[in-house]
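Proteins fold reproducibly. Consider a sample protein:
=====
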Amino acid sequence: MASIFQNVAVDCADAYGLALFWSGVTGRPLHPQDVPGARETQVLMAEGPVLYFNQVSEPKKVKNRLHLCLRPEGSRDREVDRLLGLGAAFVADHRDPDGAGWVVLADPEGNEFCVLRSESDRAAANS
């Protein structure tokens, strides 16, 4: 017997607002029944588990022990700029001079996530 991932759950202060941010990040839609003020919302991913946002009363206090890592379709640096434009905050830069590494950002509620090199960035570095 085994278990499968149903969703990746994120506790937050504004479930609908945070789901909108992540919908913009992923380019995936919210569940059709999600509306402003909803205490539970979902971003429907094309594959794998949904991103589930659950409104809670207590605020985030410490660094995430679990986080999402994103691999953009295009340039990592352009994606970082796009995500900052959507409302992400810059946390740390772990890019190496050779182009390897990642950038740590935080969503509007302070949940950290990483932006990795894209496949096209990796291919350009190896050519």
User: Anything to note?
Assistant: Residues 15-26 form the longest helix (12 residues). The chain has a mean pLDDT of 93.
